[in-house]
Amino acid sequence: MLHGVHVPHRKNTRKVAVLRMTPPQTVEIPMSMHIGRPATPIVKVGDTVKVGQKIGEADGYISSPIYASVSGKVKKITDFLLYNGTTTPAVVIESDGEMAVADTVAPPTVNSREELVAAIKESGIVGLGGAGFPTYVKFDVNPARIDYLIINGAECEPYVTSDTITMVNRADDMAYALKALAQHMGIRQVIIGIENNKKTAIRTMRHMAAGISECAVQVRSLPSLYPQGGEKVLVYHTTGRVIPTGKLPIDMGCVVINCTTLATIGAYLQSGMPLVEKCVTVDGGCVKEPRNVIAPIGTAIRDLFQVCGGLKHEPAKYVYGGPMMGVTVPNDSAPVLKATNAVLALRAREAKLPKTTNCIRCGSCTNVCPFGLAPAAISHCVKLGEVDALEALHVDACMECGCCSFICPASRPLVQTNKLAKPMVMAYLKEKQEKEA
What is the pLDDT of residue 2? Predict the structure, then answer.
């Protein structure tokens, strides 16, 4: 049985030409654009930098290097407030407009699995669908553990089309990466999962798959049902394998990466240019000319709106990503990050939250939950502070997709309550362990 919700697609930009913007006057590049430890700045104020030059060194195993996305001078290094409330250093570069490329940019030498993993790490590539997990870590495993490489092309969020555009326009880069992974990682089975409303992308990927002999590539047309792109959901719908709570896809023989991540790996292996730009969907009721824009990382989102004709209304909310799992940012100075796949400028009527009423115990939230959780019961336990019950309800399994809040006829903030419940359970378990020690 398929669980999920049918959300409005609003794919307004799927047939609009992609625009590569000219470099902005300044970029602000945070050192934390990935899951794990922030990178450490290795430049100082006044330094001249070029495109592709390393400006942040990875700090530890779960981390990722950061590169200059424009050429120019380091104007300042400042504290940057991330949308999760934490701060990180950020390098502000004043562009000289030349986009001169660093001498260090050259295709990496890859003749083994170890060299491939090292190259992916050095590229600065992280999960580009929004997660931001350092990609090399997923491949730094015994190849014998990998039964399937699953490419996520579902793109189930409303508005967002940047992944679809990538599959249509960058199939050659994706093919190059797949051939390298087959040669050096021993990948034999690849499944590309795409929602069935993306006909052109499906045709393009099937044509690409027909030209690859190094491994078996299947293109699966999946039901257009949110959250089809959720990692555990995608694994189940492509392989039939269930990933238990607390386990990772690799524990079930699967590695999942986003289609844009794959294309960026292919481009890096051919050119040596690390991750310095992103294709971003710019949309929302306030944007005059919605489209996909290729922008240097660190570009302020106000510059994205400007190249899309400006704004026709005063936005009530700015959002990174889609409206289901995206996050609100405080103003239009927020920069494009590595994992930014979309930026939305929403009108008041799009952003206004509906009035909450009492739960009518209809069970709709449980019916649509991909993992069969009971959000209404979780909400009740949070209100009463019954943390032991929250543990029994497996709130830690929640992927925070928002299906429960979307479907709720009482418009209750169920996914928000689930988010609040998780740290409560973690604190409870920690205290329990300390008492038993």
Answer: 64
Q: Give the span between the Cα atoms of 107 and 119, in whole angstroms.
A: 9
Give the C-alpha separation, 271 to 290, whole Å: 30
112 CB neighbour count, 10 Å cutoff:
11
Helix or strand run (H / E) with residue 75: strand 72-81
Q: How far apart are CA 160 and CA 167, in angstroms?
A: 13
User: Which pLDDT tens digit goes with each residue over 244-253?
Assistant: 988 999 999 9
Cα 28 to Cα 79, 89, 301, 362: the distances in Å are 11, 10, 11, 47
The residue written with tokens 């089309």 in the block is 161
- Tens of pLDDT, residue by residue over 120-165, are 999 999 999 878 999 999 999 999 999 999 999 999 999 999 999 9
Q: Using alpha carbons, select from 163, 290, 177 the residue that is nearest to residue 228.
A: 163
Nearest to 149 by CA among 74, 253, 230: 253
As a whole number of angstroms, the distance between CA 230 and CA 238 comes to 12
Distance CA 150, CA 144 (A): 16
Beta strands in 267-388 (DSSP E): 277-283, 291-296, 317-320, 327-329, 342-346
The model's confidence at residue 325, banded by pLDDT at 50, 70 and 90, is very high
Give the integer Cα–Cα distance in Å for 228 and 232.
9
In whole angstroms, give the CA distance from residue 122 to residue 63: 11
Point out which residues pair with 345 in neighbouring strands.
318
Cα separation, 78 vs 91, in Å, equals: 7
Q: Provide the pLDDT for residue 432.
A: 83
The CA angle 272-275-278, to the nearest 5 degrees, is: 130
Average pLDDT over residues 220-237: 95
What percentage of residues in the chain have a pLDDT greater than 70? 99
What integer pLDDT is reported at residue 80 of this predicted model?
Answer: 94
Contact in structure between 122 and 108 (CB atoms under 8 Å): yes
Closest CA to 136 of 114, 104, 152, 153: 114
Mean pLDDT score of the chain: 95
Helix/strand/coil percent split, the chain, to 5: 35, 20, 45
Return d(Cα 159, Cα 321) in angstroms, integer: 9
Q: How many residues does the chain have?
A: 437
pLDDT of residue 425: 93
CA distance 289 to 295: 16
Q: What is the pLDDT of residue 215?
A: 96
